[in-house]
Design goal:
Elements: H1 3-19, E1 29-36, E2 42-50, E3 79-83, E4 99-103, E5 110-118, E6 124-128, E7 136-143, E8 146-149, E9 155-158, E10 165-173, E11 191-192, E12 203-210, E13 214-221, E14 227-236, E15 239-246, E16 253-261, E17 265-272
Parallel strand pairs: 2-4
Antiparallel strand pairs: 1-2, 1-6, 3-5, 5-10, 6-9, 7-8, 7-10, 11-12, 12-15, 13-14, 13-16, 16-17
C-alpha cells in the first residue's frame, strides 16, 4: 500500500469515527426529476446516491449512455437527460444518461447534476420530490438566472424556448432515520418504462416502479408468445426497480416484456439488433 493511499484511508476512517452521522458507503436512494409540457406529455429521469456509484457511467446500476436524440423541434414530445458537467478532461457521460447516481463518501459532500431538457409546447414545468429535505441537508436549482430553493418549492414553470439546461446542487446526503434505515422516495403509482437502449445489442435495462409491496413477475416473450426469459419472479417491496436483460443467446428481432403484479399489468415491445 502506498503512503498516499494509507493517509487517504486513515483520513476516511477518522472522519467516519468523528462524524458518525452517516454510515459512509451505505447512503442509497433514487429520486425522480420530471419534465412536462402543456399537453401533459412528460419524461422522468432519476438522480441520487449509491455506495457503488462513480461519476462516470455505471451500467451495473442502470446507468447507460442514451442513443442520439434529435434536436428540440416544435411540438416534439418533452424529454430530459443528465449531461456531463465536465466539458474536457474527465468527461465520460457521452451524449447523456437517464439515471445519474453519485457515490456516498461523506455526510457533508456536495454534488452537481446537469440537466438537459426539451419542451416545445409551453408553458412547461420541471418538478422534483416534495420530500427532498428527507434526503439532503440542502438543495438548490439553477435555471437561467434564477436560483431556486428546492425545499421551498417542488417545481418551476418554463416559458423560454431558448433554455435547454439547468443544474441541481445538493449538499449532505441524509443520515439514517430512527430505525436505522435510509429514507427512499416512494412511487405514487405502478408503471413500467420503455427499455433502454431500444433498439439494443445485446444488453438493455427495464425499469419499473411499485406503489406497494407485491408479487412481481417480469418475463420476455417472442413474437409467437413463447416465454424466452424470466427476469423477475418474486415478492418485492415498493420502490423504483430496474433489471438488465442480456440477449446474447437470442436471435435478432422483436420481443415483448410483460410486468405482472397483484395490482397492475402491462406489456411493452423491444427490438434486439445484433
Amino acid at each position: 500500500m502506498s503512503f498516499r493511499r494509507f493517509i487517504t484511508q486513515s483520513f476516511i476512517i477518522f472522519m467516519f469515527l468523528l462524524l458518525g452521522s452517516v454510515a459512509i458507503g451505505h447512503v442509497q436512494f433514487t429520486l425522480p426529476f420530471v419534465t412536462t409540457d402543456s399537453l401533459q406529455r412528460g419524461d422522468t429521469i432519476y438522480f441520487g446516491i449509491h455506495p457503488q456509484a462513480t461519476y462516470c457511467i455505471d451500467s451495473q446500476l442502470g446507468e447507460f449512455e442514451i442513443a442520439p436524440v434529435p434536436e428540440c423541434e416544435p411540438f416534439m414530445h418533452a424529454y430530459a437527460l443528465f449531461k456531463d458537467i465536465r466539458t474536457a478532461e474527465g468527461a465520460c457521460m457521452g451524449k447523456g444518461i437517464f439515471t445519474d447516481l453519485r457515490n456516498s463518501y461523506s455526510p457533508t459532500q456536495a454534488d452537481t447534476f446537469k440537466v438537459g431538457f426539451c419542451v416545445t409546447v409551453f408553458p412547461g414545468s420541471l418538478s422534483w420530490s416534495k420530500e427532498l429535505s428527507l434526503y439532503f441537508d440542502s438543495a438548490k436549482f439553477i435555471l437561467d438566472s434564477r436560483t431556486i430553493n428546492m425545499f421551498a418549492q417542488d417545481s418551476v414553470v418554463i416559458n423560454n424556448p431558448d433554455i435547454f439546461t439547468a443544474k441541481i446542487f445538493t449538499w449532505g446526503p441524509k443520515s439514517p432515520n430512527a430505525v436505522g434505515e435510509f429514507w427512499n422516495e416512494q412511487p405514487m403509482r405502478f408503471s413500467i418504462e420503455q427499455n433502454y437502449p431500444n433498439p439494443f445489442n445485446p444488453v438493455t435495462v427495464i425499469s419499473y416502479q411499485l406503489k406497494v409491496k407485491s408479487a412481481v413477475s417480469l418475463k420476455v416473450y417472442d413474437v409467437l408468445g413463447r416465454e424466452v426469459a424470466t427476469l423477475v419472479d418474486e415478492i418485492q417491496e415498493s420502490g423504483f426497480k430496474s433489471v438488465t436483460w442480456d440477449a446474447t443467446e437470442f436471435s435478432s428481432g422483436v420481443y415483448y416484456y410483460k410486468l405482472l403484479t397483484d395490482y397492475y399489468s402491462e406489456t411493452k415491445k423491444l427490438l434486439y439488433i445484433r
